[in-house]
Design brief:
By secondary structure, the chain is mainly β. It has one helix and 26 strands. The strands form seven sheets. It has a four-stranded antiparallel beta sheet, with no helix packed on it. It has a four-stranded antiparallel beta sheet with strand order 3-4-5-6, with no helix packed on it. Strands 7-8-9-10 form a four-stranded antiparallel beta sheet, with no helix packed on it.
């Protein structure tokens, strides 16, 4: 007797929903997981979900992108600026999309041929298409990136990309004001002040393979397992004594017991890293519990005073701490907006004639 199998995907979402970014057909906030209107996604397997300030993008296994939520700057790439309350197919001409990075009010699309497309606000040069475009509801090619792109990331108002040769580019003015205050009277480096892709210095002898971004910081993982960090260190997310790092600085391996880093994820103001043995470390802002570490009733032993900073306070150095409960985890994701204002969950249900299995990926 021939057996048949079927793969169904159900999308659950909850949290802030001011612009319909939960894809539920309304703008009501949800405190509990609720099914999104996934009729447009029927019979499509979901590969990944990414969220911006008020919009959401879903990638299917076939390379299609479905979007919903805030669209006042055209960040959904639909050719108009009307908010969308349920998921709608984003028309991407002649390309399959492998990754989407959502910034605050802009979106970057990476195609299977390594081409980078962008839409939404360009007020800070975050689209990488020059200064004449203020915003775009149409997908624009980032033409100055000549080599195929393999990784892309979006922060609040800045962007990052890695080419297939391992070179890292940055653009957008999201870190400019931080850099100007920290580096004055010295000039701000080009990669922190350019509205078009600019080569990130300090990584020329490394083969980079992955980038991620927070609201005002950047992270790059190299092929040999080193993690480089730069940008604002307001919440200790760079694990250094400096309030701002203008160029990539390697995270010393001894802080993670000498292990290489295999994966890294960035929240708005915190970082999660997984080592080669599967151990998970977190550091940065943790006042909403986003580090997964037990709060101490006494002085935090994972922070060390690094002396006074410009505002008269004291900068705390957040040392990466292991979250032992997550050792061996096969997949992680973090919310990059604020303290995590909304969340989406894909429930994968494998139906067979003899058994069923369901799992939830957040």
């Amino acid at each position: 007797m021939e057996t048949s199998s079927q793969l169904d995907f159900c999308l659950h979402s909850w949290g802030a929903n001011s612009y319909g970014q939960l894809g539920q057909g309304d703008v009501e906030d949800q405190s509990m997981p609720r099914l999104s209107d996934s009729s447009a996604l029927q019979n499509r397997a979901i590969r990944a979900i990414n969220g911006g300030g008020g919009h959401t993008a879903v990638i299917t296994e076939t390379g299609e992108v479905f979007v919903c939520g805030q669209n006042h700057k055209g960040q959904l790439g639909l050719g108009h600026s009307t908010d969308i309350l349920v998921f709608q197919l984003c028309p991407v001409p002649n390309s399959r999309i492998t990754n989407v990075a959502c910034g605050w009010d802009f979106t970057l699309f990476l195609s299977d041929c390594g081409q980078l497309l962008a839409c939404g606000s360009n007020a800070f040069g975050q689209l990488g298409v020059g200064q004449t475009v203020t915003h775009s509801a149409e997908l624009l090619v980032v033409e100055s990136l000549k080599k195929p792109i393999v990784s892309v990331a979006a922060g609040l108002r800045h962007s990052l990309a890695v080419t297939d040769s391992g070179t890292v580019y940055q653009w957008g003015l999201g870190l400019f004001s931080h850099a100007k205050r920290a580096l004055s009277p010295h000039p701000v480096p080009p990669h922190l002040s350019s509205k078009e892709p600019s080569l990130v210095p300090g990584l020329d002898r490394r083969i980079s393979r992955f980038v991620t971004a927070g609201s005002s910081h950047c992270a790059c993982l190299t092929g040999d397992g080193d993690l480089f960090l730069w940008g604002s260190n307001k919440h200790g997310q760079l694990a250094t004594t400096e309030p701002f790092l203008p160029a990539p600085t390697v995270l010393r391996r001894p802080v993670m017991d000498g292990e290489k880093v295999n994966n890294v994820w960035s929240g708005w103001t915190h970082i999660v890293a997984q080592t080669e043995s599967g151990r998970v470390f977190t550091w940065g802002r943790g006042d909403y519990g986003q580090l997964g570490q037990r709060a101490s009733t006494s002085t935090d032993s994972k922070q060390q005073s690094a002396g006074p900073v410009a505002d008269g306070g004291s900068l705390k150095v957040c040392i990466p701490a292991e979250v032992k409960e997550l050792c061996g985890a096969t997949q992680e994701a973090v919310s990059s907006r604020g303290a995590g204002m909304n969340t989406a969950c894909v429930e994968t249900v494998y139906r067979q004639t003899s058994s069923s299995h369901s799992s939830c990926l957040v």
